[in-house]
Amino acid sequence: LTKNLITIDGPSGSGKGTITLMVAEKLGWHILDSGALYRVLGIAAQRHGIPLDQQEQITQLARNMDIQFVLNEKSGEIEPVFEGENVGLDIRTDEAGQAASQVAIIPSVRDALLARQRDFYREPGLVADGRDMGTIVFPEAPAKIFLTASAECRAERRYNQLKSKGVSANMRALLDSIKARDERDRTRSVAPLVPAEGAFVVDSSNLTIDQVMAQVIDFVVEKL
Ligand code: C5P
């Protein structure tokens, strides 16, 4: 039985989030924003006063954390609710992204989140967004996409995205932060950021969202 699964992996700011929403909407499928899980975990650790390198305590937290996802009717985005509080805005800060990538290095944390992520699969299908969706979490997915773009492009997009959400941002700091996070994600020993075998690689640096979407849909139609 081939599952209706599309994985979209890539570095932060590559346009994954937007493309994931658009593909899911077009197909009427569900979404997994796996980065949000790591971001909530980072925030949860900070709120519980656990240093980000305390592997055992963070793993416990990952196993037990009380997190749900709700649809924001206004934006159409899925937002996490942690311990009863909507943290949709809090997880989007750059600090939360850095914290996420620090807890994401810990192998036992990744293990603890595996089943939770696989549980997101529902009929009629799932579009899963992350770093290791095609390599580790859903290796059986029939359609795998790897979306990338230059660090400069991604910093600029993140800048505009944060501004539009009313979050303050500094271009230079964002670029440094993106490069630091790329380095951590690409060089970690467990589930490093690499294209899955057979993934369709799209460099979105010089493409509009609609152009990326057109290429992705062509690929998906051919694979499913
Ligand atoms: O995609 P997003 O920027 O929200 O992810 C935040 C961080 O969470 C990433 O930099 C990465 O370290 C981690 N992450 C991961 N595996 C995933 C999704 C996110 O390690 N599948």
Automatic annotation (TrEMBL):
Pfam families xrefs: Cytidylate_kin
Annotated ATP binding sites: 10-18
Family, per entry: Belongs to the cytidylate kinase family. Type 1 subfamily.
GO cellular component: cytoplasm
CDD domains: CMPK
GO biological process: pyrimidine nucleotide metabolic process
Record's catalysed reaction(s): dCMP + ATP = dCDP + ADP; CMP + ATP = CDP + ADP
GO MF: ATP binding; CMP kinase activity; dCMP kinase activity
Record's protein name: Cytidylate kinase
Domain Cytidylate kinase: 6-220
Gene3D superfamilies, A to Z: P-loop containing nucleotide triphosphate hydrolases (3.40.50.300)
Localization (cell): Cytoplasm
